[in-house]
Amino acid sequence: MLVKVLDQITDDHLLEAAWTLYLDAFEELNALAAQRHLMYRAEFDEVMRDTRIDKYLALEADGTLSGIACYTNVLEAIPLISPQYFERHWPEHFAARRIWYIVFVAANPLGKGRDAFAQIVEQMYLVAATQNGMVGLDICTYNDEVKRMSKRFRLMVGRLCNNNMRFNQVDQQSFWLYEFPSAA
Description:
five-stranded mixed β-sheet
């Protein structure tokens, strides 16, 4: 398997394969998480064209796309995070562009998808680690409690750096619902 990094995807066939893989990975979360985790197609296409966001493609020997991730240290390129938050808490890292953000990681649940996920994460880790950087990502409650994603990331990255890292939850958002049942 080869992990290829592109600054944009312009090939229509590859773009369609990337969208299908992304859709398969995140569509179900729309019913499992309060905040939308699936970009609309136009948003996805815009991200794929945005040269500030690197696209990590896991390609099998025959060219089949088995994983894709988006990763950037240009935090202003990511619509749903606050660059000011990162600048306030880690001003030196922010000024030096040593804070990366994982926009998403999607892998085919069948075949070599698990390998694709691991290899993409390793490649992203190497970028930040070699520059004494930091990596941020968001994980919804469902993915953390059911799929144990924070634990998986911590274990995977920990193995790569002999556990020479700190892995902390830096913020949390909760969604609340006021319900007014009938008086009967």
